[in-house]
Design goal:
- It contains no helices and eleven strands.
- It is mostly beta strands and 273 residues long.
- Strands 1, 4, 5, 7, 8, 9 and 11 form a seven-stranded antiparallel β-sheet that branches. The chain has a two-stranded antiparallel ribbon with strand order 2-3. Strands 6-10 form a two-stranded antiparallel sheet.
Length: 273
């Protein structure tokens, strides 16, 4: 095969006794099959030393600027876990979205008043409707007792009356800022899919689970169909054994927020629930 010179790049060292780093770049012309590195000295040079010569291929496409890395800068399998410090990449930094629980205070650890007994929890809001609203409270049932975990509390929607009509809603809203003021839900875009689930112990009543959709102003647009659980109590001191109900839905047009909503219907058996 005949090798034809298609071009070259060169620079003059112009140095006497001191060492010097020389570097440069060129665009490889079409038709190139080989490249080579050459050093030339003038006839008046008595000694010349060359160290650590390198030929590097610059990545095609955009250069890495402002700390950004795009796919064009990466080759297949180029980044492995050994190249990453623990905890530096989280799912919320990726296009796939959040991988964790979006609910706030879902372990009921943060209470409204630490001295009150029983305790009410922050970021979970009560709405009363109809006769069922009479004598209803939403409290934290403490760990170690009946209808709670041995080490974890549960949220209780308690109705001490026998009313059978109406309902009680409990909604989870994250704070909108550092002030702790109530937000409108988790940010979503139309078409985003959201899934919620909860383990319930339903005592003489029916529980329902919804996802609600709200616009940018917080106005309710609608909800997913109700998923229900009725008269299913489970084990007295093992919430992990309670039935888990779940639902999912795609955010509708104009949706900007989503929130979880639990609804307790009225007493079925003529006593408390």
């Amino acid at each position: 095969m005949v090798k034809t010179n298609l071009g070259s790049w060169s620079t003059d060292l112009n140095t006497t006794t001191s060492a010097r780093l020389v570097e440069g770049n060129m665009t490889i012309p079409d038709g190139t099959a080989f490249i080579r590195l050459a050093f030339r000295c003038s006839e008046n040079v008595t000694e010349a030393f060359f160290g650590n010569p390198r030929i590097l291929r610059r990545m095609t496409g955009k250069l890495i600027v402002d700390g950004s890395i795009i796919a064009a800068h990466l080759t297949a399998n180029a980044i492995q876990t050994a190249h990453l410090d623990a905890g530096v990449v989280t799912s919320q930094k990726l296009a796939i979205g959040f991988g964790g629980n979006l609910l706030v205070n879902s372990d009921w650890a943060v209470v409204v008043d630490g001295t009150a007994n029983p305790k009410t929890v922050k970021h979970w809001y009560l709405n009363l409707n109809g006769q069922t609203a009479a004598e209803v409270s939403v409290i934290r049932r403490e760990a170690g007792g009946d209808w709670a975990g041995p080490e974890s509390p549960v949220l209780e929607i308690a109705q001490t009356s026998t009313k059978s009509t109406g309902f009680v809603d409990v909604r989870c809203f994250p704070p909108k800022d550092n002030s702790g003021a109530r937000g409108n839900g988790w940010p979503v875009k139309p078409g985003d899919w959201i899934e919620v689930s909860v383990q319930l112990s339903a005592h003489r009543c029916r529980g329902e689970l919804y996802i609600e959709w709200r616009n940018a102003a917080g106005v309710l647009l609608g909800s997913t169909p109700a998923v229900t659980l009725q008269n299913d109590m489970g084990e007295t001191r093992n919430p992990d054994s309670w039935t888990r109900i779940w639902t999912k839905g795609a955010a509708p047009a104009n949706a900007a927020f989503a929130n979880l909503m639990l609804r307790k219907k009225g007493t079925i058996s003529g006593t408390n629930s």
